[in-house]
Amino acid sequence: MKLWEKGILTDKLIEKFTVGRDRELDLLLARYDVLGSMAHVIMLGSVGLLTKTEQDALHSELLVIYEAIGKGSFVIEEEVEDVHSQVELMLTRKLGDAGKRIHTARSRNDQVLLDIKLFIRDELHQVITLAGRMFDMLIAQGERYKHILMPGYTHLQVAMPSSFGLWFGAYAESLTDDMQMMLAAYRVANQNPLGSAAGYGSSFPVNREQTTNLLGFDSMNYNVVNAQMSRGKTERCVAFALSSLAGTISKMAFDVCLFASQNFGFVVLPDEITTGSSIMPHKKNPDVFELLRARCNKIQALPAEIGHVIMNLPSGYFRDLQIIKESFLPVFEELKDCITMATFAVEKIKPVDNLLDDDRYRYIFSVDEVNRLVMNGIPFREAYASIAGQIREGNYHPGQGLQHTHEGSIGNLCNDKISLKMKEILGQFNFQKKDDAYRNLLKK
Prior knowledge:
The chain has 17 helices and six strands.
C-alpha cells in the first residue's frame, strides 16, 4: 500500500531504492505516528471534518495500535511503504471509510516531520537524564579526590599542579555547556509542524493551535513553508548538541587512556573494566575507553553529514531528506550507550596518590614560586627571571605549599556553583508538559 497510489505500477527496482530502510527505521517512529494521529483526529472532529462517532472509533483503534507497538507486535508489512501507510491501512481494514478519512488535511511531509520532532523530544529527555547521572558521578568523584594532586599539562609538557578533583570537575562543568546546547536543540524541535501539509498549508479549516496544545509543544512553526524547511535543519541542530556531548566524553576517554598508560601512571584501571592480549599476558587494555573515544568521534561527524545532505536544497520538500533518518534516528541509542558506559567505567578508575613526589615533576611548582616572590614585593618579570635562572643553573629547589584559593582553582573547586548551574539549566526543560500531553491522548 502507498498513500500516493494512483493505479500506476512502479518498477520494483525503483520501489526498493526509494523505500530504502524506511520499513526498518520507521518502527522507531511508530508510537509517535500514532500519537500525532490521535491529536489530528481530535482536531478534525472539532472542526467538523469527522463525526463524533468516527472520531471515537479512530481514537479507540489508534489505542489498539499503540498497545501493539508497545508489545512489539506491530510490523510494517512487506508491500507497505512506511509507518504512515501501515497505520492508515490498519485503520481502514478495521473501520472502512473512517480510516480513509484520517489523512484529511495532512501530508506525509508534515506527518514524518511531526513524528521526528516527537521522537527527538523523548530521546533528548533520555539523553539528558543519563547525562545528569554522569554529571552527579563526576561531581562526587571530584569531591572524593579533590586533595590528590596530579600534573597539569600544556603542549603535553609538564606545566602546573592540578588535582583529580579539578580534572573530574572540569568534565562536570563541560557537561553544563553541553546541556545548554541540548536546551537550544530541544527548543528548536519543540515546535509543531502539523498542519503545514506538503509545505503550503491547506484549504481545510484546521486548528493548528489545538494540535500544538494536544501534543504538548511550546509553540508551532507558524509559517508553513518554514515548517517544511525545518526538516533537516532541526536534525542538524540536534546533531550539533549530541556531538557536543559526545566530544566531552571522547576527550575524557582519551585522558583516561593516557593517564592509565605506564608512562603516565596517573590512574589504575580495575581488572574488571579492562581486556587482555592474545599473546602478551601482562596487558591490561583500556578497550572500553578507546571504543568510547571512537564511537563519540563518529557521532561528532553527524552534523557535517546532515549538513552535506541539505546544503544545496532550496525551499520545499525533497526526497533527499529521507536519507538523514538512516544516520540520525539510531544515533540516540549509540550516544545513550556511550553515556551509560562512561558513567560506569569512569566511576571505577582509581587515582594514584603522591604523583608529584616524582623528580620529573620538580619544576611543576615554579609558577607558584614566582608568585610567592611577587607576593613578597618583587616585580613579576624579575621574579620570573630569577626562577628561570635557578632552573637553568640547576639551583632550583621547589617548595610544595600551594595557595590556590580563587574560584575554580585547586583549593576552591566551586563544585556547588557548578551543580547549581546544571540544576538551573535542567530546570528549563519542561518535559512534564509533553508527558502530560501524551497521557491525555492515551486516555481510553
